[in-house]
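Side project, low priority. Logging it here so it doesn't get lost.
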Amino acid sequence: MSNGTPWYKRTKPNIVTPSEERREVPEGIWIKCPKCGAPTHIKALKEAFYVCPKCDYHHRIGSQEYFEILFGSNGFEELDATMESADPLHFVDRKPYPQRIKEAQEKTGLKDAVRTAVGQIGPYKVALGCMDFHFIGGSMGSVVGEKLARLIRRARKERLPLIIITKSGGARMMEGLFSLMQMAKTAAELALFEKEQLPYIVVLTDPTTGGVTASFAMLGDIHIAEPGALIGFAGPRVIKETIKKDLPEGFQSSEFLLEHGFIDLIVHRHQLKQTLIDILSILLPDEAV
């Protein structure tokens, strides 16, 4: 160009390239599938229980969505809704633990990584606990353990079937030994619950790992998993580095666990509610409300 400006520099205003002609989609309206990359409108995704209509990928969802799927229009009584974590170790990493808790609460609208409730699934009154991965990775601290222990006691007292939906990265390191104690606490409560000969059903979702897997997640009478869920104790990288061997294809997926006898069923989210009702109708034929 005669004025010395490179030819690739835009010199005139209002020149629109083809890519800029595309209409901008407001943030949050479309969700991209992590597996196949297909975009889905949030309304359609919600109507499909957050399952990708293209590839059947089960998006991670939280307690609010599971409560809506399972309880439907039935009301439910939420238990210990205001319980919050203390800071027994005065733990500080990049920020103080109380600050991390407060930020997680503001971001998620939750008090901690599990919600518990008593409500109606079909004709059955049940005690239901559901973990939330968005709250510090669904980590199990003293609040998670205590709320689940109280839920189990409530189920024993009222002779209710118990259902827990797991989704966790493991124990919460910011509470140290207090977090690890929750493994023993929940296991002890489940041992007492077992004596009542009431059903305990676990629904394993992506991911279920660490101390949660090593305690209440694997102590159920029936273990259901969602398709493609990661389920294990240590992560695949840690295991591979420890045993110095390559791991089998699909290792720690729900499909792998079903093939090797670690779980009983893989259930699509669309069929989860009816499957639970069917199981309860077999185990508790005379308990429908």
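Brief comment: The longest strand covers residues 200-208.
Revisit when time allows.
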